[in-house]
Amino acid sequence: MDETKPSEGVVLTPRQLRNRRLRNLAIGLSVGLLAALFYAITIVKLGPGILRPEP
What mean pLDDT is predicted for residues 19-45? Predict the structure, then answer.
């Protein structure tokens, strides 16, 4: 086996790390809002009967 030093890979600058964090936050918020929208649409399509239990 070769005993060479493993490469460090890509080293990001602080600005690139900040941009990555902001992009991840934006994607996370978008997915969360989309899930909330789907949930709200489902409740609306089921109608008001879902909120009122049958006796």
Answer: 95
CA distance 30 to 26: 6
Query: Is the whole model's pTM more than 0.70, yes or no?
Result: no
Q: Looking up tokens 């809002």, which residue turns up?
A: 33
Q: Are 35 and 42 in contact (CB under 8 A)?
A: no
Per-residue tokens: 1: 């086996």
Alpha-carbon dihedral sign for residues 43, 48, 54, 55: positive
Asked whether 44 and 37 are in contact (CB, 8 A), the reply is: no
Both tokens assigned to 51: 């909120």
